[in-house]
Specification:
294 residues, 3-stranded antiparallel beta sheet, alpha+beta, Double-stranded beta-helix
Length: 294
């Protein structure tokens, strides 16, 4: 990964807030992905990413090779265990979420209903997701948005008693659990389950680069170590609700050619429904591996 630019260096691009209310997220204006990937410029891009948790490039043409190449600037790109979503044999790092059928028409099936619930990508791995890069190829006229919630702010808003309560707790994240309850009609295979067994992570983690504390929960978290299962489930759901109040959410309405990169270590996200029988949504995702939360 490139060295981050110092704060005294002026970035060779403009940044604009994505929302006046959310307090995070910036549009990068004045450069394209090819220029952003150069070492001289990427230092500034990465600093913007760390400072604002999410960056957006508009009106980009991003074939899969460029998507993978740009994602590699952030680190090692995951090849997802759910290999039925890997749509490019030459670029297995690209995970495709699409309801476009073989005939080019809407299939009527949602590709992954788990994405409709608050989660962070790759939390079910020992080495969790650092960044996700999403490319919007085809978007529906209505719905199919992505919502984001700030986990730095979620932790900061907690009363002291809640912070003390959550500090020692570890939640067990389990892709099979979340997949089965949200998209059970297409379950994981035995080989897929064996590749990603459940793993425990702290509910309050420290961001490894900014040093800031944040909540680390979401839909892949199944239960809490040392706590009765139902009690732990209820606490996970309660913490997720506390972390995602409606007035603190950034709602992104995708346009074709949008490229978004967000920090999985300090954001939760979810997609919104759309008419899968009448509209087509095709999104291409790369997830960059990070660290084991602490």
């Amino acid at each position: 990964m490139s060295v981050v630019a110092t704060t005294t260096e002026e970035a060779p691009f403009e940044v604009r807030p994505l929302s006046p209310d959310a307090g995070f997220g910036r549009a990068v204006v004045g450069i394209g992905l090819a220029e952003a990937a150069t070492p001289e410029v990427f230092r500034h891009v990465y600093r913007t990413f760390l400072e604002h948790q999410m960056i957006l490039f508009r009106d980009q043409e991003v074939p899969p090779p460029l998507q993978v190449a740009f994602a590699r600037n952030f680190g090692e790109v995951q090849i997802h265990v759910m290999n039925q979503y890997l749509g490019y044999p030459d670029h297995p790092e690209v995970y495709v979420l699409s309801n476009r059928g073989a005939d080019g028409e809407p299939s009527g099936r949602h590709p992954d209903k788990g994405t409709l619930h608050w989660h962070t990508d790759g939390s079910w791995r020992e080495t969790t997701g650092q960044a996700t890069m999403m490319v919007a190829e085809i978007v529906p006229r209505v719905g199919g948005e992505t919502h984001f919630a700030d986990m730095y702010g979620a932790y900061e808003r907690l009363p002291a008693a809640w912070k003390a309560r959550l500090a020692p707790l570890r939640a067990v994240h389990n892709l099979d659990f979340s997949r089965t309850r949200r998209h059970g009609e297409d379950p994981m295979s035995a080989a897929q389950k064996a590749e990603v067994p459940p793993v425990a992570h702290p509910i309050v983690r420290t961001h490894p680069e900014t040093g800031r504390p944040c909540l680390f929960v979401g839909d892949h978290a199944e239960y809490i170590e040392g706590m009765a299962y139902d009690e732990g489930r209820a606490l996970i759901e309660q913490v997720t609700r506390l972390a995602t109040p409606e007035d603190r959410i950034y709602r992104h309405v995708w346009r074709p050619g949008d490229v978004m990169v967000w920090d999985n270590r300090c954001l939760l996200h979810r997609a919104t429904p759309f008419d899968t029988a009448a509209e087509i949504r095709v999104m291409r995702r790369c997830t960059v591996l990070g660290d084991r939360p602490y």
